[in-house]
Every structure is written in C-alpha cells, then in structure tokens.
Amino acid sequence: MGRNEKIARSVVRAIANTNGHKPSPSGLGLILSLFSAFFSLYCFILRKVRPADFSNLRRKHWNIDDYDYMCSFQPNDGDSGEPLKAIGDMGLSGSTFYSTNDQKYLVKSLPRYSEHSFFTQDLLTPYVQHMANHPRSLLVRICDFLAVSGWPLGRLLRAAPAHHIVMDNIMHGREAARQRGNPDWEDWDLKPIDYFFPERDIAGGALVSDDNKRQLADKFHDKIVLRRHQADDLFATLEEDTAFLAEHNAVDYSLFLVRIKVPDAAAASPDSRQEQQSWRTGVPSADGKYVFRASILDFFWAKHKAQPRLMTLLIGFWNLLTRSGHMSITTTPDEYRTRFLNMCRSIVEVRD
Question: Which spans are transmembrane here (predicted)?
Fold first, then answer.
C-alpha cells in the first residue's frame, strides 16, 4: 500500500470513529499499538477537532444527514477500491487533495504550521459562528477538521501531513455530466493578479518551471451576467465574508468560480429546492447561457503568524532595492480585501 492510500485510510478511520475514541488495549497489545503508532510514516491516528461544532453545522445549518455524510467515505457498492481518491498535489502550499467516490467532499491537507495553527487557535470558533449566522456565506463549508494524535515518526520527518480539512465540493456533479456527454464544466481559481508574484515577475518567470507558474491565480476573460437582485445579493455576501476574514487578519484567499452550460443545468442544482438559487448549488445567469457556482477558498494565511511575518519582512527588504510592491501574502488584510472585492465586481455585468 502506497503513501496516498495510507493517508487516505487514516482520514477515513477518523471520520468513521463517531465516538472519538477506541477501546484501549492493555498489556502487550498496548505496547505493540504504541510502538506501531510511533514508527508509522504515513498512517497516522487522526482525531476530530471540535467534532460537536462541525456536526452541529452539518446537521442544523447545512442539512447534511449524518448517515449520508458517513456513506460518502465508504467504497461504492460492489467496489473493492479505496473510498478516497488522491487527486494530486495542488497549489504552491504543497497541500494534498483527496475526493470521496461520490465527489461530494474534498479532503485537503494543511501542511504549514502557520495555517493549521491559525485555524485551530484563531479562526475556528469565529468561523463556526459566522457560518451558523450567515447561511448564504460563500466561505467554503468545512465539514470536519482532523489533527494527528501524538508525535509519530512520520510527523517528525514530515513524511505525511498531520492536519486535514474535509470540505464541501462545489464541483459535485461534474463527472455525471461528463458521462451524459454534456460539455465539461469550466473552473477558475481567482485572486487579484496585480500583486508582485516572484514566480511570474522575477526575470520574466524564467527561473521557475511552467508547472509552478500554472499554479498561480487564473484569469477570467469574460463576465458573469446577473440581474440586479442577483448581483446585489452576491456583493452583499462578499462584503460580509471578506469583512470577517479581514477582521481576523486573513489574506491571499481566492474565489473559486465554476461555469456550467445551460443544457447541464439540471445537474447544477442537485440539492433541495430551497438551495437551488445559492452560489453553492448554482445561480443561473441573466443571459440564460450558464449556471454559476462560487466559493471562497484558502483563507488560512494570517498576517500575524510567524511565517507570514517573515515573508513580509523579506519582501520589505526586497522592495528597498526593486520597489516591486507587496505580494498577495504580505499586504494588509484591508488592502487585500479591497482588491479582492474590486476583482469580483470587475467580472460581473448587471442587466436590469
């Protein structure tokens, strides 16, 4: 069994462990289990962090049935394969991603200490409160947060990630659309692109591989055509969500945008009728051509943490020589929020 499969099984065991613990072995069994846990490189014992809070969000605010949620982390009927499928390393953070077989949920690792400590120590309680009080929030729905128990050898050697989030997948339904022969869904990971990006701006990008440059923010060369009430609702939600993130010092988050052609609109809103006009399940464009989904991702980079402070200091020294300007990870939260909102407004066309 390879590294990805062992990590995936650790995640699945943590999700399935609804009681939060297993019966403790005794005697020789205890010694062997401790020995095995310590020398494990990839297969960690993961625990749910604040499981009651996330369960409350799922059941009371997002209408996610506990049984259905658990079933997403089981193999398909008649399938002997793994319940989680690795979908590679994505992004410059080095995070690894997995998808459930039914594609309803993604599992993302948080390998950086500054990211998982920020979420645990600073953002978790405010996030739970914000999502409970703002049912139309565009912040990605985090359904569980998993952390390693103890200090196994693999954690000390950083052989495998020790923290993972389970989040709602707004691309759910794409594979079914492909199988029906419908046009493939399009997606963009959008950030303000007028910041200084070393991968792109130093030596014209010649010092960095094309793979790294492709992981930078996308460009959306079109418009989301909305009616006035749709646009007003969208911008009001973005204002609330970004104010929340700025209040907690978060920067460098992105807008994940999905565009689905109208012939596939039936698959764009598979959930209950009361959610059909949400950006999570699909909002029809005013020109009748597309259904759009959107979510705010990657809000774990906080300016007050050690690594972001070091990066800010280094860019400050660099700017003494080059005056290149701030990066998206070194600017202030309010300034990033302003540029992010301007970017979102620039891709929307309103038709009354």
Answer: 27-46
